[in-house]
Design brief:
Helices cover 40% and strands 10% of the residues. The protein has 34 helices and 20 strands. β13, α27 and β14 form a beta-alpha-beta unit.
Length: 899
C-alpha cells in the first residue's frame, strides 16, 4: 500500500433515519443485514437484490407497514401465465384492427394530396390500446353516462377509421378529413364543437387531457356523493403519450387523484419512447421514471412492456443479467435496436456481459429480431386486456397502464421507430402493399395500381362488422360518442335575489365582488336550482367573501371531515363534507379550470346541467389558463368565470403580477366568451340573470360568461327605472347619468364619457369637475362590455357584406349624442379601442397601459392618467381639438390639478 494511503480509513456508514427509533432487538436486525451480505457474497449482488425485491413485494401484497418501492423491475406487471383469456373472438378482433389500421393510413395519405397531411405513426403504435378497449371495456351511453374517453389527439385518424367501419362515417366523410370549410368535414383532432356527436373532450393541446381527465373523474364522484347522479358505473380513460407527460399540466393533479382514491380513473400511457421528433428520454428510461412518479403520487401502476416472444429470453435469465441490462440500456438505444440487424443486437446488447452472451448463443436471429423489433406488450391484445382488467379490478387508487409500443408499428421499416415519423404524412404504394400483406387484408393488387389508395371495408354484413356491433351493443352502444341527454330547461330562479341588488345598498359600501357572492348565496337557497350551483375557488375563499358558504353548503371532500378544525368555535368555521357543494381546489388555477370544465359540460356528459362559477384573481385567469378556456369553448362548456380583484389599479398593494389590465383583451379572442365589466351590483344582477337564461333556458347556447368584479367598496346605487337600461346592460352600453343643466345663456360645450367597471366612478367625479370648474356638460355612459359591443358590430359588418343593412348597437346608442367621446377604463386602451371604428363621434381613450405597480389607488391612477382630474384634462383636450373650448384651457387645467 502506498505511504499516502496507509492510514486512510473507509468512510463511516451513513446514518439511518431509523437510528432515531429504539431497536428492540438489535441482534435480530444485524442478522437480517448479515444474511443479505452473505447472499451477495455467495450468489452475487443480483441475487441479493432479487430476494430483497421479493421481500418488499410480499410485504406490499400482505399489507405490512413497509415502504413501497417507487420502481419495480423493467418487466410486465402481469406475467403471461396470469393473463385472463380474452372473452371474445381474437381472430375477428385482429381483422377489425387491421381494417382500421389500413383506413387510418389511407385517409391521411389521401389527404396529403391536398397538402393537408395528418398523423400516421401514433395510432399505428397505439391501435391495440384503443381497439382492445373498444371491444371489451369502454362503456357506451345506452344505459346512462357511459365511460368518458380522452383520446390522444394524434390518434384521431384511427378513431375515424373505426367510425367508418361501424357505419357512422362514409368514404366521403373520410375524404373530408381536415377540410371543414364545407359541409361534412372532419376536424383534425378531437374537437367537440366541430363534431359534437362524436367527440366529448378536446385533447390535442397536450397536457390538458390528463389534467381534465382527473378532474372529470373527481367531478363524477362529486355528483354521486351529492346525490345528483349515480355515476358509479362510469370510468374515465385517458390515453396519453409518454412525451406528453413532460407537460406540467399532465402531472399537476396526480397527487389529487391519489389522495381522493379515484379508482374510477385509468391513464393509458403509450410508451413508444418517442416525442414528436426524437426520443422522450434519450439517456434514461421513461417507463421507470413515470412509474416512480405515479407510485409516489399514490397510483396503482401496471406495466405492460414486453410481448410474449420475450418470455423465452426471461426464462434463460437465471442470474438477472438480462433484467439488469434492460434496466440500464437507455431508451434511445432501445429505439436503435428496433431498426438494427441481429449482429448489431448481439454485439451491443448481449456483448456487454458474458452471461448475456451465453443467453444470446441459445437464440436464433429471427427470435432476436422479433423481440427487439416489434414484440411489445402494447401490440398484443391479451396483454392489453390483462392490464385493463387489472386496472378496473383495483380499488382505492387510480391506475396508470404504462404500455410499451413501437411508434409507426405495421407501417413498414421506413416508419417504425424513426425520429422523423411525425413529419411523414403518407405511405408509398409499395409501403401500402407491404402493409396489406402484413395485415393479411383481401385488397387486390389492381386496387393499388392507379389513383389514390382505396379505403377498404369488409361489408356492412361481414362477420367483422356484425361482431363489432355485437360487442358495442353489449357495452352500451358506440364509442366515442357525445350525446345530449333530453333534459328540460332549468326553471328560472326567483326574482327576489336579483331585485335585492336592483334596489342598491343605500349608504352601505360594498364591493361588486361581495355583491356577486351575495347574489349567488341567495340563488343557492332556491329549492329548484340551488343544488346545481358549483362554487369553485383555487384558494382564499375568505378573500372573496365566500366563508359564509362553508357551514351552509360545505367544502367537498370524499373523506368528509376527519379532523377538528382549528376555527371550530367560529360561526363560519372551515367545514368539509362528503356531500359538500364547494370545490376548494387549493392553489391551482389550472386544476380549478379543469374542475370548472367538468361541471360546465355535465349537461352533455351526464345529462345534468350544473351551474359552475369559478372565482379567481382576474390576473391569474385568462393570462394563466387561457388555453384551458379555449378548450372549454371547444367542449361547449357553460358557466360563469368571475375575475375578482379586477383592473390595473384596484389591487395596487400586490404590485406588478397582480395588476390585471388586459384579461378582457384576451377574453375577446375567445368566440364563446361573453365578457362583461359591470360597475354596479344591479348590472351584475341583470347580467347573471341573462346568462342563466341563455345558458340554461329553453334554447341553451354554447357560451360561457366572464365577469370582472372589484374589491373597491362603493355605495351601490339602485337601478335606473327607465326603458332600455336592462337591454343596454346586456348589449354592453347605456347612458347612466345625463349631464345636468348648467347656468349661462349659451349652450355649454358637451361630450360623452364612456366608462366600464370601477372607472365609472372616476367618470362621475370627472362629470362633476367638468361642470363645476369648466362649465362643460358630460354625459356618463356605463360600458358594461366593450367586447360584446365589438361582437355585435362585427356581426353587422358581416351582414352588410351579405347584402343585409344592419347598424351596430353602439352606433345606434350614441347616434346624435353631442360632442366627442372619451372612453376610460381600468384596462389597457386596446380594450375600449375595439369599438372606435363604429363610434360616430370623435374617439379618444384613456387606459392603464404598461405594468402595474404598488401604491395607493389614488397615486397609481394618477400615474396612469385615469384619475378624475386626468379624465377632465383629457376631456378638455378633446374639446379643444374641435374648437369647443379655448386651447389654453387645457394648460390651465393641468396647472390646477397638478398634471
Amino acid at each position: 500500500m502506498p505511504e499516502r494511503d496507509r492510514h486512510v480509513r473507509p468512510p463511516p456508514p451513513a446514518p439511518s433515519a431509523l437510528d432515531q427509533l429504539p431497536d428492540r432487538d438489535a441482534e435480530e436486525t444485524a442478522e437480517w443485514a448479515a444474511s443479505l451480505d452473505a447472499v451477495a457474497a455467495a450468489a452475487g449482488p443480483r441475487r441479493a437484490g432479487y430476494l430483497l425485491r421479493r421481500t418488499l413485494e410480499h410485504a406490499e401484497r400482505t399489507g405490512l407497514p413497509a415502504p413501497r418501492p417507487l420502481e419495480t423491475d423493467h418487466l410486465n406487471t402481469i406475467p403471461t401465465a396470469a393473463e385472463p383469456a380474452l372473452p371474445g373472438d381474437e381472430v375477428l378482433d385482429a381483422r377489425i384492427t387491421a381494417w382500421n389500421r389500413w383506413n387510418a393510413a389511407a385517409m391521411v395519405t389521401r389527404g396529403s394530396r391536398h397538402g393537408l397531411g395528418g398523423h400516421l405513426a401514433t395510432y399505428a403504435s397505439a391501435a391495440w390500446l384503443y381497439e382492445t378497449g373498444f371491444q371489451y371495456f369502454f362503456r357506451g351511453k345506452a344505459d346512462g353516462s357511459g365511460d368518458q374517453l380522452y383520446v390522444q389527439g394524434h390518434a384521431s385518424p384511427g378513431i375515424y377509421a373505426r367510425a367508418f367501419l361501424d357505419g357512422r362515417l362514409s368514404e366521403a366523410d373520410l375524404d373530408r378529413f381536415r377540410q371543414e370549410t364545407g359541409p361534412g368535414g372532419l376536424p383534425s383532432y378531437p374537437h367537440p364543437r366541430r363534431l359534437p356527436w362524436l367527440w366529448e373532450f378536446p385533447t390535442v393541446s397536450m397536457g390538458l387531457g390528463p389534467l381534465s381527465a382527473i378532474h372529470q373523474a373527481r367531478f363524477n364522484r362529486y355528483l354521486h356523493h351529492r346525490g345528483i347522479k349515480d355515476t358509479s358505473a362510469s370510468h374515465v380513460w385517458a390515453f396519453l403519450g409518454d412525451g406528453e407527460m413532460d407537460e406540467p399540466e399532465s402531472t399537476a393533479a396526480l397527487a389529487l387523484a391519489g389522495r381522493d382514491g379515484l379508482d374510477n380513473l385509468t391513464f393509458v400511457v403509450n410508451c413508444n419512447l418517442q416525442r414528436l421528433d426524437g426520443p422522450v428520454r434519450a439517456n434514461f428510461k421513461i417507463v421507470q421514471e413515470l412509474e416512480a412518479q405515479f407510485r409516489a403520487a399514490g397510483w396503482n401502476v401496471v406495466k405492460a412492456l414486453w410481448g410474449r416472444s420475450w418470455d423465452a429470453l426471461f426464462a434463460l435469465d437465471t442470474t438477472g443479467a438480462l433484467l439488469q441490462r434492460l434496466r440500464e440500456v437507455p431508451d434511445a438505444q432501445v429505439q436503435t435496436y428496433a431498426v438494427r440487424d441481429a449482429a448489431y443486437i448481439r454485439a451491443h446488447f448481449f456483448g456487454a456481459d458474458p452471461e448475456l452472451a451465453r443467453i444470446a448463443d441459445r437464440l436464433d436471429d429471427a427470435t432476436l429480431l422479433d423481440c427487439f423489433h416489434s414484440s411489445r406488450a402494447g401490440h398484443e391484445p391479451r396483454k392489453v386486456h390483462a392490464a385493463y382488467r387489472a386496472a378496473l379490478a383495483h380499488r382505492g387508487a387510480p391506475t396508470v397502464v404504462l404500455a410499451q409500443t413501437v411508434k409507426g408499428h405495421t407501417l413498414g421499416d421506413g416508419f417504425a421507430s424513426r425520429n422523423a415519423n411525425h413529419q411523414m404524412k403518407k405511405l408509398s404504394t409499395a409501403e401500402f402493399r407491404a402493409m396489406r400483406d402484413l395485415l393479411e387484408l383481401p385488397i387486390p393488387d389492381r386496387a393499388l395500381d392507379d389513383g389514390p389508395v382505396p379505403y377498404a371495408h369488409p361489408g356492412a354484413d361481414s362477420a367483422e362488422v356484425r361482431y363489432l356491433h355485437e360487442r358495442r351493443a353489449a357495452l352500451g352502444g358506440p364509442a366515442p360518442a357525445r350525446r345530449l341527454h333530453p333534459a328540460p330547461a332549468l326553471p328560472e330562479p326567483p326574482a327576489a335575489p336579483f331585485d335585492a341588488l336592483a334596489k342598491g345598498s343605500g349608504r352601505q359600501e360594498i364591493a361588486t365582488t361581495m355583491a356577486f357572492v351575495r347574489l349567488v348565496k341567495d340563488l343557492m337557497r332556491d329549492q329548484a336550482t340551488g343544488a346545481r350551483w358549483v362554487p369553485i375557488v383555487p384558494d382564499e375563499a375568505r378573500t372573496f367573501g365566500m366563508e359564509s358558504l362553508f357551514p351552509t353548503h360545505g367544502i367537498y371532500s370524499p373523506l368528509g371531515q376527519t379532523y377538528e378544525p382549528v376555527d371550530r368555535g367560529q360561526l363560519l368555521a372551515y367545514t368539509e363534507a362528503r356531500d359538500g357543494q364547494i370545490l376548494n381546489e387549493g392553489i391551482t388555477e389550472a386544476g380549478s379550470m379543469a374542475a370548472f370544465t367538468a361541471a360546465a359540460t355535465a349537461y352533455a356528459t351526464h345529462g345534468e346541467p350544473m351551474i359552475p362559477f369559478y372565482i379567481f384573481y382576474s390576473m391569474f385567469g385568462w393570462q394563466r389558463t387561457a388555453d384551458q378556456m379555449w378548450a372549454l369553448a371547444d367542449q361547449l362548456g357553460r358557466g360563469f368565470l368571475i375575475g375578482a380583484t379586477a383592473g390595473r389599479t384596484t389591487m395596487t398593494g400586490e404590485g406588478l403580477q397582480h395588476a390585471d389590465g388586459h384579461s378582457h383583451l384576451i377574453a375577446s379572442t375567445n368566440p364563446a366568451a361573453r365578457s362583461y365589466d359591470p360597475a354596479f351590483a344591479y348590472e351584475l344582477a341583470v347580467i347573471v340573470r341573462d346568462g342563466l337564461r341563455r345558458m340554461y333556458g329553453p334554447a341553451p347556447e354554447d357560451v360561457f360568461y366572464y365577469l370582472t368584479v372589484y374589491n373597491e367598496t362603493k355605495a351601490q346605487p339602485p337601478m335606473p327605472q327607465r326603458p332600455g337600461v336592462e337591454e343596454g346592460i346586456v348589449k354592453g352600453l347605456y347612458r347612466y347619468r345625463e349631464a345636468g343643466p348648467l347656468p349661462g345663456p349659451d349652450a355649454p360645450p358637451r361630450l360623452q364619457l364612456l366608462a366600464s367597471g370601477t372607472a365609472v366612478h372616476w367618470a362621475l367625479d370627472a362629470q362633476r369637475l367638468l361642470a363645476d370648474d369648466w362649465g362643460v356638460a358630460a354625459d356618463v355612459w356605463s360600458a358594461t362590455s366593450w367586447n360584446e359591443l365589438r361582437r355585435d358590430a362585427l356581426a353587422c359588418d358581416d351582414a352588410l357584406l351579405n347584402g343585409e343593412e344592419r347598424t351596430p348597437y353602439v352606433t345606434r346608442a350614441l347616434a346624435g349624442a353631442p360632442g366627442p367621446v372619451l372612453a376610460v377604463s381600468d384596462w389597457m386602451r386596446a380594450v375600449p379601442d375595439q369599438i372606435a371604428q363604429w363610434v360616430p363621434q370623435d374617439w379618444n381613450s384613456l387606459g392603464t397601459d404598461g405594468f402595474g405597480l404598488s401604491g395607493t389607488r389614488e397615486d397609481v391612477r394618477r400615474h396612469f392618467g385615469v384619475d378624475p382630474e386626468s379624465v377632465v384634462v383629457a376631456a378638455l383636450a378633446a374639446l379643444a381639438r374641435r374648437g369647443d373650448v379655448k386651447a389654453g384651457t387645457v394648460a390651465e387645467a393641468r396647472r390646477r390639478y397638478g398634471r
